[in-house]
Amino acid sequence: MKYLIVIVAFVAFANASPIEYGHYGPVVHAAPVLHHAPALVHAPVHKVIAAEPVSYPKYSFNYGIKDPHTGDIKSQAEERDGDVVKGQYSLVEPDGSVRTVDYTADDHNGFNAVVHKSGPAKVVAPVAHYAPAPVLGHYPLHP
Fold this sequence. Notes:
Elements: H1 2-14, E1 19-22, E2 25-28, E3 58-67, E4 72-81, E5 84-92, E6 97-106, E7 110-120
Antiparallel strand pairs: 1-2, 3-4, 4-5, 5-6, 6-7
């Protein structure tokens, strides 16, 4: 702590303003603003953290949605055992056909997908509403 006080006193002494004698007597300049001496900081302590054991990846899930109000029909099932993933999903397209995708993924072959499309699940007639163009008035093409 003695060294810290000596450093602060030295910094304060070094930054002191001299007194000048001008035409009307002594002129004292304002001393610059001094900041405290930097605090002594200890080096960070590095803690050795043991790596967490990696668990074996294994899961299985499936879900499905069938909303008759909106026509949203889809499902998915997937399972993983280690680095091998297998799954399938399907959905009803807007035209009524069903798209089914079977996929696999592993470290050796990468991701592979096979897409199947079947005929329409139901016949959906397009709905189109056309209103006649409004008649604004009759204007001859040539006067």
